[in-house]
Amino acid sequence: MKKIIVLGFVLISFIAKAQEAEKVSVEKNLYGAQLGLLSTSFYYETQLQRKISLRTEIGLTLVTSTRDYIDPEIKDETATLITPYLTLEPRWYYSLDRRKRLGKKTYNNSSNYISLATSYISNKTPLINNGDFDVVSAITIIPKYGMRRAFAKHFNYEFSGGVGYQYNIFSKNDGCNCDHNTTTVDLQIRIGYDF
């Protein structure tokens, strides 16, 4: 009888380990480059837990800014900038198990995700500024929903979007009469290459 009980526990333990081994997880390390409609970037994702990764991204983005004048006689000015940014984004790839169950690809983090993207956009050091006024830098915090899919072994595409908070960094010496706190929208369509 004792042998049967011990054998039962060993069998249950083996089955539990086998099921745990079958569970899919995000890649331990994933890095590459992506090109979007308004940005280009290099990224590195590292696994924090089975379905959670931390994405670090550095890149260039296209920004437009308009200086509105109260006086109707003075024409408003618009500047277009290409400026660097840095993003830290924890991602929860919640649909990995479902995709695996349905027999769909999960490699290179092919899944839907929810994230919280925190970015610093440095408008003090733009590569291109076609306006004659300075644009203030900003910090954004945006909860996002997205989907990432890998194809052709090394390529990927992503769609993501969210609405969040933007804090404009300036002092009264900058001569900015804008608000510190604003709402921002982030919509991304990107194609990339995983190294």
Report mean pLDDT, rounded to a whole number: 86
> Spans with pLDDT under 50 lasting ≥5 residues?
none
Strand order of the largest sheet: 1-2-3-4-5-7-8-9
Residue fraction in strands: over 45%
Count of distinct structural domains: 1
**Assembly type:** single chain
CATH fold annotation: Porin
Order of secondary-structure elements: HEEEEHEEEEE
> How would a textbook summarize the main sheet?
8 strands, antiparallel, barrel
Q: From the coordinates shown, what is the CATH architecture?
A: Beta Barrel
Helical proportion, percent range: 10-25%
Shape label: elongated
CATH top-level class = Mainly Beta
In DSSP terms (H or I, runs of 4 or more residues), the helix count works out at 2
Structural category is: mainly beta
| Beginning-to-end CA distance, first to last residue | 56 Å
Number of strands: 9
Radius of gyration: 23 Å
Write the SSE topology.
Elements: H1 2-22, E1 29-36, E2 39-47, E3 52-67, E4 77-92, H2 96-101, E5 111-121, E6 128-129, E7 137-151, E8 155-169, E9 181-194
Antiparallel strand pairs: 1-2, 1-9, 2-3, 3-4, 4-5, 4-6, 5-7, 7-8, 8-9
